[in-house]
Amino acid sequence: MISTQIPGFGTLTLEHLVLDYNGTLAVDGLLLPGVRKSLNTLAADLAVHVVTADTFGKAAGGLEGVNCRLTVLEAGRQDRAKVDFVNRLGADRTASVGNGRNDALMLAASALGVAVILGEGASTVSLSAADIVCTDIVFALELLIHPLRLTATLRS
């Protein structure tokens, strides 16, 4: 569990981390450098879940050696499936990270939503739904590894 008090934002008590795969952790289906190490570090404190359409069919191989649970979604209403997943875990105890339009609902529902803008860009709907926007996935994950960085960004 990760817990931090953020003035003007509230107390974040996180037990789960839910992440999209393509465009968030990977580009063209290939896991980005530094992601495996960061996710395994976070897995000591959070249950790590990757929820994806697996557009390139490479998520399982890319996540080999990562302490996480992979869920591949069926086609259709993936935005709804992702927010339902977060709600089943407990949205008030979940941080989520994504970039696509189908991530917007889970970003908005989660206690902490982080949008990332990588090589394939990010949906403006998801950017608006997020609490924080990052241009590097490892930096986004390090916000949770070093929670005072969340305070610096989110306090009012």
Can you give a write-up of this model?
The protein is of the alpha/beta class. Helices cover 33% and strands 26% of the residues. Strand 9, helix 5 and strand 10 form a beta-alpha-beta unit. The longest helix has 12 residues. The mean pLDDT is 95.
Helix count, DSSP H or I runs of 4 or more residues: 7
Helix-and-strand structural type: alpha/beta
**Share in β-strands:** 25-35%
Number of strands: 10
Helix fraction bin: 25-40%
Shape: globular
Instruction: Work out the radius of gyration.
Output: 14 Å
Assembly type of the chains comes to single chain
What's the N-to-C terminus distance?
A: 24 Å
Largest sheet: 6 strands, parallel
Low-confidence stretches: none
Q: Name the helix and strand elements from N-terminus to C-terminus, one letter apiece.
A: EEEEEHEHEHEHEHEHH
Largest sheet, spatial ordering of strands = 7-6-3-8-9-10
Quick synopsis:
This protein has 156 residues and is of the alpha/beta class. The protein has helices at 35-42, 59-62, 78-89, 104-109, 124-129, 137-145, 148-154; strands at 2-6, 10-14, 16-19, 26-27, 30-31, 47-52, 69-72, 94-98, 112-116, 132-134.
